[in-house]
Amino acid sequence: MGFQLEKIVLRQIRMPLVSFFETSFGRTYERDIVLVEVSAGDVSGWGEVTAGENPFYNEEWYESAWLILRDYVAPRVLKHPFDSASSVAARTSHIRGHKMARGGLEVACWDLEARLNKVPLWKQIGGGVHQEIACGVSIGIQDTVADLIRKIETEVNAGYQRIKVKIKPGWDVDVIREIRRNFPKIRLMADANSAYTLADADRLRALDEFDLMMIEQPLAWDEIIDHVELQARLRTPICLDECIKTAHQAEQAIRLKACGIINIKLGRVAGFAEAKKVHDLAQKGGIPVWCGGMLESGIGRAHNIAMSTLPNFVLPGDVSASKRYWTRDVVSPAVEVSPRGTIAVPDGPGFGFDIDHAFLKQVTVREETLS
Question: Which of 43, 76, 113, 255 has minimal Cβ neighbours within 10 Å of its Cβ?
């Protein structure tokens, strides 16, 4: 079913995290998130911009996303007739970069189309192979190793099927060794968020002894070639995250053997259309994928659930329960994880959760309607 966007509402929400989250970029205590609501007639679709508070993960942050959406994306999509949501990304593809801003609108259009067709979002994108999502957790850098061990124990007892810990120089080999001493059997991975260079290859190779599932994005966010050399020197698979912004870059990385695994994030690749291309290329190349997280609200989390139903999402992702991050979420019911570490895929139209409009109003700090 085709559609035409008659109105776009941008909302900036601010929510405190249940506990701080630290990576090699720094420590986050609360999230400023831009939400995108698109409307055709009396039907709305919802998306989330996954940019952070600072331009550290990539060049975007919530303020830049607001301006790009308002001044560049909205004028190009409002009143334009779309045959399907799959054609939305091309309408803004000449805007260089700013994929998270563009992706926030693109995923909202997929949600809108699913609601217009009265089908679940996972069905609209061509998913549905997995009707239960295997869940992992991402645990940030802690004040002490003892604090980290306690957090891991909590998540293992909650049933999560994979533990990801953040690392950086000075918080890596000895920390992983202590985790393995306490948890010799868990599925464990380390995420460096580009904190190392090729000069650190020997230190990263020291992680081989700990039977990690993967080391995620050890080198620079825009560096595929050095990852090729590093992967040749490691037994542990490298998972690329920040490097893969397009299907073409995924194809390059696979062809050059720069990685053994790819993390797909909707915002990083500008939405579902490109995410599906990355997924298909990886599947063809025998490279497993999983869904990465960006401290999303329930709206972004619901989109991640839908994406994770595609067939090559065979590793537990960062799609975890709302309560790990928020005292109260903007969707109802909150996203919940079963005792065996899974999320049931919702069957309702669109992304399958209701918007908690009362709470959304409480946490909205800015709103603008474009028509």
Answer: 255
